[in-house]
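S1.2 Input.
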Amino acid sequence: MNSFRTPNLTRLAAGIAAVVASLTLVACSASGTAASTTSASAGGTSSTLAASAAAALADNVESHAEDGDTEYDATDAITITLADGASTTSSSDGVRIDGDTVTITAPGTYVLTGTLADGQVVVDSDAEGKVRIVLDNASITNADGSALVVTAADEAVVVLADGSSNSLTDGTGYDTSADDAPNAALFSMADLTIGGTGSLTVTGNTGDGIASKDGLVISGGTITVTAVDDGIRGKDYLIVTGGTVTVDAEDDGLKSDNETDDTVGYVLVQGGTVTVAAGDDGIHAEGDLAVEGGTLTVTRSTEGLEGSTITIAGGETRVTASDDGLNATQGSTASSTQGGQGGGGGMQDDGSLLTISGGTLTVDAGGDGLDSNGTIVVTGGTTTVNGPTMNGNGALDSNGGITVTGGTLAAGGSSGMAESPGSASTTGWVAVAFPSAVPAGKTVTVVKDGTVVATFTTTKETASLVVAAEGITSGESYEIQVDGTTATTVTAGQAIAGGMGGGGRRQP
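S1.3 Output.
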């Protein structure tokens, strides 16, 4: 892992303390200017691009969740005790039991305890009002379908009771071909909120682990999901505001896939601790994807974070990807293969926007580190990219250019597709093409008049490096050392010869 240290920038102090890393920037008091005749402009000013990012997020439909959704009075709740062939309830009002199928038919609060080894709990309520399901040491397995399914409800809330341990497991190979057929261990046709302080283990053996055909909000609890398809999916949106969420999915980890318009299909992480291992995307949004707080770690993925607009505004994010780390794209990322990795979605600016305005972001990517089929804008935060070793990809890759006006950025990787910030940048930067690739475990220092301005410890073979930070001044010369020996000298604000100057892709 890498991080920056800028002692004179108090606004970055919290992010610096939060990360133990190998990139250290020792800031000077004055900020440099990164305008360069060798660099192309990045498609607009930072203020207009930042406004575009804000507008893209602002037009999304609002969350259905409300304060107090997971609070309940146990004395007013109906209790349901699950038992194979012998389930019981404290009231028949709103509850129907037929063998090992328990159906809840009215709004209210229902506390479930006990075990169904092969049964199902169904919510089928046509009346207005929330149906609140409290899982209090409940275990449900259904060999023929979803364990807990909401076929109809005004809104559904699943509460994980304090101190409880719960599990939901569906069967293998049941039919999910019909429209709106349940395809997850926990499936809902209605808006769904999951919270509380207990734990829930979900196993999706046929499709997803948890899925809602409307919105899905996770506000608390310790939730562990394993799935043969997507881990957690909210069709209209998926929002995480708290809790500890761990996902191991064979396809996407977290996902929102409504393509109807630009107000839906978004994923938002506002808090909590989220850990994802995925066979495809760590987080996939057909619309916008934003991280505003919490801790997000993608430990395994093909592409780490993917959406039409990606915004990193806070929190601590770590992404490991075999292909692109962060990929902002308006359409399919299918592309020709270059050196075993995807080469991106073509060379035209498709209007996508990747914005980093706060928090700490660390990326380890086999393909492009930060990739946008539109523009990349960095206005704040601490960003470190350990990019590709093959020349068909770059640590930074945009179709519309890169603008850096704040924060700190370091991106190391191969040199064949190396891209630098554009002339609209107001934060100083240096771009280095090493005479020979620097092996992993080496310390690279940027030195000005005998003073170390920045240090970077390589985590893999590194042929090029871009560092943008306060304390680097455009037009001034900097010595680049590897383990204390001078490797080359560069001028701040000049792009790597043969590389990209912030104005889009170059064919390898």
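S1.4 Remarks. Confidence is low (pLDDT under 50) at residues 1-44, 333-345, 503-508.
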